[in-house]
Amino acid sequence: MTEQHRKFKWPQPVKGDRPRIWFGGDYNPDQWPEDVWEKDMAYMVKAGVNIVSLAIFSWAKLEPEEGVFDFAWLDKVIDMLGSSGVAVDLATSTASPPMWLTQAHPEVLWQDERGDVCWPGARQHWKPTSPVYREYALTLCRALATHYKDDPTVVAWHVGNEYGCHNRFDYSDDAKNAFQLWCKERYGTIENLNKAWGTAFWSQELNDFTQIIPPRFIGKGNFTNPSRLLDFKRFSSDALKSFYEAERDALAEITPDKPLSTNFMISAGNMTLDYDDWGYQVDFVSNDHYFTPGEAHLDELAYSGSLISGVARRHPWLLMEQSTGAVNWRTINERKEPGQLIRDSLVHLGMGADGICFFQWRQSQAGAEKFHSAMISHAGTDTEVFRDTCELGQDLRALTEEGLLDAGVVKSPVAVVFDYQSQWATEHSATPSQNVHHWTEPLDWFRALADVGVRADVVPVRGDWDTYEAVVLPSLYILDADNSRRVRDYVAAGGKIIVTYYTGISDQNDHIWLGGYPGSIRDVVGVRSEEFVPMGDGKDGALDHLTLSNGARAHDIADYITSVEDTTRVLVTYSGDDPWSGMIGVPAITVNAFGKGQAAYVGCRLGRENLALSLPELCKAMGIALPDSAGSGNLLRLERLNQETGQAFAFYFNRTRDKVAAQLEGVPIIWSHAEVDASKETAILEPNGVVVSKGTRK
């Protein structure tokens, strides 16, 4: 990867203040009368709030008429915040246009695949390829930057907001023209594009770039060109990124010393944009993360935090949004359980966040998000939520004083690789199984490794995964020539890699690597599969699952492995199923010697539980050490370390619904829903419990 990240630049405290863990949330004073603002300042001081994101959706109030700007109300709010010791992450307010703009220029509204217009009435009803919208947005950015360039309370810029949350895809003529230019820049000639898109299939050859159109509606049940669709997803991410970069550069030209970021939406299942690609274009990474209800809550949160750290290339990052409790946009909006507000925040902190913020400060009285929880709820400040918010503020202040800001996340010996574009390719409607996608497999591996006591790092495919002791490539469907070479070089030099089904299937254009699966790295893993074996389509008598010789069960998909190299050991086969399946005795898990290293292959989807069952034997065969202690998977342990002083902060989280004992390393300094014994050497963690201890590494 030749492109370089922007130089890391972190929001600094107002002059005279010490660096601290940032703590706060979105603040929307324009939704409230001014007599509430004074109360807010007092409550923020009580809670320990030291930063707010301001004016995210305030364009209509900042520019009530075209060219008429009103900053007086915002000046007053910023002055009040500064006097209260609260810094401001000031938004560009461009996330949604005012009604006067869309009334005068309806051409800025995006269109769906059928050509229907997205009319005003919600948010993000603009298209990133509209030159008209860009002109208005940049005018606002420059006005804000000019007005606040010398304001010491404004410590950072919040550019846009959750790009692509609602306007990821646009199929208008503006988008068509931009897509044509994007393709010309990418491929150079129409001949190269025809080859990349495989247009010989179904008579789709193009004679000129002007014949390119977005993947508009093609009829119900039909199948669009997968290579074109993949490129359109890349283009859509790039189009929004280009709009962000224009806003960023307009601000940076006027206020070069104020760091800039925008809030990503990184979670296990959110593939809106290629956030790793976007990570190159921010001064510091920010993220909005909302919890997954149910038993996966803690693990998904830790997984996502690790992925954010990977996107940030292990620099500190800011949790821009999370919820204190329920959100408003699910079918059922579950509340957080007691303890989870504090626990969830400390998980993010343990994964490298140096700032913890919420959406939002005060729960809205009206509007679409009025049932979204906040730091101050409809019930006011005499609530469990606000008391927990204040406790969290005290915890963050204590951790700042203990020196956590000088400690970075300790690198795991194991990397689990993630790839946005592999997910995009597996979303196509004509694949071996619509139940099989990329994103679920990395999460399953992260959780299964945690079950056997290993906390893995989640690393983007562009990242430094080939510097780890062991690597998992989980359903990395797209593996281009460069990454295939990285795999080969890594293992040949002594690396240990675990490759799963649905890896190395296609190149960057979604063209199949020929010769059998996994096509681009068959020699490395030492096996060849002739076919996919999908399972569980609900038909009577159809294959529903496969039982492995180690007692595990495969579901959804398996590989029909018909040959193995002489250097390959077969660890597990399929057994015990009806003989008509043709799978009895077929290899399921193998290990191959390649160069100085080893490559395992897991040829079926096992899910978290069956992976955890299979990992001890697999890791033993590869010489990957697992913790000796029984029950090590009951705790999630994270660590941040000051490399200069050796000061280490260990975070312990209970992964179960039972009480769990933790042997502490160092002196406990923070605990919630946990009891620490008199000697301070052990702790009993309740469900949702957490303990943070501080010690010294020799």
UniProtKB/TrEMBL annotation:
EC numbers on record: 3.2.1.23
- Reactions catalysed: Hydrolysis of terminal non-reducing beta-D-galactose residues in beta-D-galactosides
- Judged by the first EC level, this protein's enzyme class is hydrolase
Which SUPFAM superfamilies does this chain map to? (Trans)glycosidases, Class I glutamine amidotransferase-like
Q: Residue ranges of the Glycoside hydrolase family 42 N-terminal domain? A: 26-398
InterPro entries (UniProt xref)? Beta_galactosidase_Trimer, Class_I_gatase-like, GH, Glyco_hydro_42, Glyco_hydro_42_N, Glyco_hydro_b
Hydrolase among keywords: yes
Which controlled-vocabulary keywords does the entry list?
Glycosidase, Hydrolase
Q: So where does substrate get bound?
A: R123, N161, W329
Gene Ontology terms describing biological process: carbohydrate metabolic process
Q: Where is the signal peptide?
A: none
Molecular function terms from GO: beta-galactosidase activity
Q: Which CDD domains match?
A: A4_beta-galactosidase_middle_domain (cd03143)
> Where do the Beta-galactosidase trimerisation domain residues begin and end?
414-623
The positions flagged as active site in the entry are: E162 (proton donor), E321 (nucleophile)
What GO CC terms are in its UniProt record?
Answer: beta-galactosidase complex
Spell out the family assignment given in the record's similarity comment. Answer: Belongs to the glycosyl hydrolase 42 family.
Task: Give the protein name, as stated in the record.
Answer: Beta-galactosidase
